[in-house]
Amino acid sequence: MVESSVLGFPRIGAFRELKKNTEAYWAGKIGADQLLAVGKEIREKNWKLQKEAGVDIIPSNDFSFYDQVLDLSVLFNVIPERYTKFDLPQLDVLFAMGRGLQRKATETTKAVDVTALEMVKWFDSNYHYVRPTFSHSTQFKLNGQKPVDEYLEAKALGIETRPVLVGPVSYLYLGKPDKDSLDLKPISLLEKILPVYTEILKKLAEAGAKEVQIDEPTLVLDLPEEVQAAFKTAYETLAKAEGLPKLILTTYFGDVRPNLSAIKGLPVAGFHFDFVRCPEQLDDAIALVSDKQTLSVGVVDGRNIWKNDYAQSIEFVKKAIEKLGADKVVVSTSSSLLHTPVDLENEKKLDAEIKNWFSFATQKLAEVVTIAKAVSGEDVSAALEANAAAIKSRKESDLTNDEAVKARMAKIDKSLSTRKSPFPERLAKQKAKYNLPLFPTTTIGSFPQTKDIRINRNKFVKGEITAEQYEQFINSEIEKVVRFQEEVGLDVLVHGEPERNDMVQYFGEQLKGYAFTTNGWVQSYGSRYVRPPIIVGDVSRPKAMSVKESVYAQSLTKKPMKGMLTGPVTCLRWSFPRNDVSQKVQALQLSLALRDEVNDLEAAGVTVIQVDEPAIREGLPLRAGQERSDYLEWAAESFRVATSGVRDDTQIHSHFCYSDLDPNHIKALDADVVSIEFSKKDDPKYIQEFANYPNHIGLGLFDIHSPRIPSKEEFVARIGEIMKVYPADKFWVNPDCGLKTRGWEETRASLTNMVEAAKVFREKY
Ligand SMILES: Nc1nc2c(c(=O)[nH]1)N[C@@H](CNc1ccc(C(=O)N[C@@H](CCC(=O)N[C@@H](CCC(=O)N[C@@H](CCC(=O)O)C(=O)O)C(=O)O)C(=O)O)cc1)CN2
Ligand SMILES: [Zn+2]
């Protein structure tokens, strides 16, 4: 009998219970006990759901109140000193590391003021992890035993689970040195961290765990030699320790082949590979596995929502069984299901035909179980027939093909992706037109999405207020934001995006070729979730999407107003994409739709236009090579197709966040001004790299994930530091990213301080 396994299940709850309670806890509305109880309930539900679906290998320790990598940092005491000096309870230390904490002293507690750790993209997904931050003084030791507690919790429910841990090499390699230890290479800490891994693994074994899923996703990256070598050191050391559970070395999101020599012959009990992302690695994976090891075959997609093609998966798994034998093969999800919505059954508004093409996390449980049964020779013919019919229905549907879009795509050429003049000429015309001061100040687009805004939108969606009432409400929000910016003294204004539920979903909802969910939430970071819209067919724009709001905002002020759009690559990356058409084709279709929008904005008098591409780095293929250079080409081309239909004196802005960027990649977009997240970038080398960026640039000056307010002096110090290497006449002053997750009070205070700091430099230069 071939076993089925799941690498991780969404932890947000079917109706965002985790978000609601976490935020209530932060607001002081519920206590820690209640939050902990909610976590426990979610875990129990998830385990039971998997058990009832018939999954053989069920994960534990896939739950987290914020992020699984941050959990490990707390567990291993990788906690910079600045978080430990306030005597906070451990849960609050964890949240302070994740999102910063600033609060006044009370009679019983000290004042706290600490910024968050850096948050970065989890590989090429829209999930973000909190980057482990090491210093020379880091002392590894166990703080508690979360993985053991959760294993025992499941066991008490009568459910045997397989705990999940990020492995030592990936954990170190995904980290970075703290500001006080910039010369430290995290991987050099391997020997020091292995004892705590040994200790927690031993405790798991003592609690009864037979096997542990040890995630080493960095194996799908191009790794420096010392990191490759670290696998041998790590896993041979762990194998020597006595009384440890079996380890399943788990990789996902890509191709492991270039690193096979690093893991060949390692003393582990088995390997997991992602064959959805890279089916071509099957033969090598089979060859890697010794007769004592197992191969977990990831064929059910943890990153997308399309129904599994059973016929194809069964044939695939059978190839592994033929070579290795049924007892050596496990059928699995490709990665954790964290990246998919919880349950398709909670979608009440999806068109029935389209809904039948989808599978969310709960449905995927049945998929791994059915495939495992099928390859074990059990009769699952009814499920196979229904599946084949759904796959066929999608292939043949008229909903996916649009001849007009295809005809327009065929006509894309160089003229469509080149601005009329090179940057220096455009710059001269833009300077004359906008006459901005040195160190111009601006924001990235969104202003606080208050409860009031969400409630009004919710009423509108439910039909409790009319379209006119809603429009009036949005207009009053726009006016408030415009007046606020004038008052604070910002130079280039925004309308604040109050009409948008999300920067991608909002456009998806207006584009043809898309489907969207009402409850398909996926965790993006901490308590922030998204409902990625789903690209089901060829994409086009039936009518203008953002012109009305931007024109209204511009009508309220003499200062330049930025039109605000989400770029083609980001629309693609933050949607669930089609898997029957290339990403390039989907991005170019989106770029044509956006080009029309950009041109309409210009024609309506909105002539500073920001086209955000925060996901451009995330889309970069994980390994260097042909696929990566192709991506860089088509990603930049799509941006330019969207933005190059405008006059020279129309100023195109773009914005990027959450990644280590390469200025050369950004250069290819040829935007006039870019703003990038920067406040957590401490490495002077990185600042230097951006000093050579040819067009104008705003290096983000404060972290917008944290409610913390930087003082004017802090801004002055930071700008001063950057000015040591940076040409003053190219520098814009702005936050890291949009302010939608912030409250008004912090927003007002931070922006006031930021503008005051800009004035200091205007006088100086
Ligand atoms: N797609 C996407 N990816 C991104 C980003 C982004 O902005 N969008 N930013 C970066 C960081 N990631 C982020 C992801 C989400 C959020 C975020 O703010 N999400 C909101 C939800 C946004 C949303 O869809 N809001 C809807 C629904 C809001 C809602 O919950 N409404 C209530 C009703 C109103 C109420 O009582 O509050 C309900 O449905 O129950 C709306 O405004 O209309 C949240 O989790 O709170 C921010 C950053 C990278 N990736
Ligand atoms: Zn951003």
UniProtKB/TrEMBL annotation:
Binding of 5-methyltetrahydropteroyltri-L-glutamate occurs at K19, N126, W574
Which residues catalyse the reaction? H705 (proton donor)
Q: What class of enzyme is it?
A: transferase
Q: Where does L-methionine bind?
A: I444, G445, S446, E497, D612
Cofactor comment: Binds 2 Zn(2+) ions per subunit.
Which residue intervals define the domain Cobalamin-independent methionine synthase MetE C-terminal/archaeal in the entry? 439-759
The coenzyme or cofactor needed here is: Zn(2+)
> Briefly, what is this protein's role?
Catalyzes the transfer of a methyl group from 5-methyltetrahydrofolate to homocysteine resulting in methionine formation.
State the name under which the record lists this protein: 5-methyltetrahydropteroyltriglutamate--homocysteine S-methyltransferase
